[in-house]
Amino acid sequence: APAERHRAAFEAAAADARQRLLVVEHDGAVVGTAVLVIVPNLGHDGAPYALIENVVVDEAVRGQRHGERLLRSMIDEARAAGCYKVVLTSRKSRTDAHRFYKRLGFDATSEGFRYTLIAD
Question: d(Cα 63, Cα 68) in Å, to the nearest integer?
Answer without folding.
Answer: 9
